Amino acid sequence: MSSKWLVKFKGKNPSDRFNQNFLWNNESVYIMDNHRAALWCWFQHLSKASKYNLFHIDRHFDTVYTRIEQWN
User: What CA–CA distance (Å, rounded) separates 32 from 21?
Assistant: First the structure.
């Protein structure tokens, strides 16, 4: 077993869309203070030879007021 800090612990600080206070990994286990890195963690274990479908539902303040109509 090889455990490692991918983002070393920075203390009890707020984390947001730009900051990750810690990300620890041991094989397929990841522990983090903000789940915004979860998708990246999953990608580390996907096979490039396989096809996947991902459907993610999650409501955040930064996605509630989007300009999606203008982007299409």
Answer: 8
